[in-house]
């Protein structure tokens, strides 16, 4: 897919993932669990950051349930209450009180004891709009993950950053900005892409 404008690319791949049927989304969610179970980094992880699917994103709901069953602690991204444009990761469990953020996305309520510092996480699974053969990720355009994960990109932290996407979200080359954080791995329902070993 060759489109000059990042906004046009974003619109195209959002439309692709939103065109998937409910059955295709459910199948993708189940395949995601199977793929992750093959990953040594996931098997060994005890603290995992995931997300609640929105706008046709690959839904990690089954993966979240699997983590709970395996005794892994799950954290969700929450808009940082004091640092605009950044995220904090908050403990999420079946009885977590939830609130909607300014984008209408549900987040667990923040408390002083529920936040997990980024260095304590083993894996951060991120949603994405598109990805390319080099592991570049296109998000929704807000830059939240790029700002939050900058210490990981600078090798200051040893957190595995893994993008989750549908098969239809892969393209040859994405326009890359200096602040974009490349993924270590990307998992689709059909394949695990390794871009950087940790």
Short description:
The chain has 198 residues and is α/β, with parallel strands linked by helices. It has helices spanning 6-18, 22-37, 40-44, 61-69, 144-148, 150-153, and strands at residues 47-49, 73-79, 87-92, 98-100, 106-108, 115-116, 123-127, 130-131, 137-138, 160-164, 185-187, 192-194.
CATH architecture: 3-Layer(aba) Sandwich
Shape: globular
How can the largest sheet be summarized?
Answer: 8 strands, mixed
Indicate the mean pLDDT: 91
- Radius of gyration, in Å, reads 16 Å
Keywords: ATP-binding, Ligase, Magnesium, Metal-binding, Nucleotide-binding
Catalytic activity: (6S)-5-formyl-5,6,7,8-tetrahydrofolate + ATP = (6R)-5,10-methenyltetrahydrofolate + ADP + phosphate
GO molecular function, one term: 5-formyltetrahydrofolate cyclo-ligase activity
Protein name: 5-formyltetrahydrofolate cyclo-ligase
Topology:
Elements: H1 6-18, H2 22-37, H3 40-44, E1 47-49, H4 61-69, E2 73-79, E3 87-92, E4 98-100, E5 106-108, E6 115-116, E7 123-127, E8 130-131, E9 137-138, H5 144-148, H6 150-153, E10 160-164, E11 185-187, E12 192-194
Helix pairs in contact: 2-4
Q: How would you characterize this protein structure?
A:
By secondary structure, the chain is of the alpha/beta class. The protein has six helices and twelve strands. It has an eight-stranded mixed beta sheet with strand order 6-3-2-1-7-10-11-12. A two-stranded antiparallel sheet has the order 4-5. Strands 8-9 form a two-stranded antiparallel sheet. The two termini are 31 Å apart.
């Amino acid at each position: 897919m060759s489109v000059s404008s990042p906004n046009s690319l974003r619109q195209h791949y959002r439309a692709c993932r939103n065109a998937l049927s409910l059955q295709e989304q459910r199948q993708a969610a189940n395949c995601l669990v199977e793929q992750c179970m093959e990953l040594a980094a996931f098997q060994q992880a005890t603290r995992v950051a995931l997300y609640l699917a929105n706008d046709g994103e690959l839904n990690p709901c089954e993966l979240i349930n699997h983590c709970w069953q395996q005794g892994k602690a799950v954290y969700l991204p929450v808009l940082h209450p004091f640092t605009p444009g950044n995220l904090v990761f908050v403990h999420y469990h079946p009885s977590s009180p939830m609130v909607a953020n300014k984008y209408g996305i549900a987040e667990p309520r923040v408390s002083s004891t529920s936040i997990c510092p980024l260095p304590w996480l083993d894996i951060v699974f991120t949603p994405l709009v598109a990805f390319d053969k080099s592991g570049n990720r296109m998000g929704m355009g807000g830059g939240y993950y790029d700002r939050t994960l900058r210490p990981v990109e600078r090798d200051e932290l040893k957190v595995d950053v893994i993008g989750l996407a549908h098969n239809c979200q892969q393209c040859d080359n994405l326009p890359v900005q200096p602040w974009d954080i490349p993924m270590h791995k990307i998992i689709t329902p059909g394949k695990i892409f390794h871009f950087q070993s940790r």
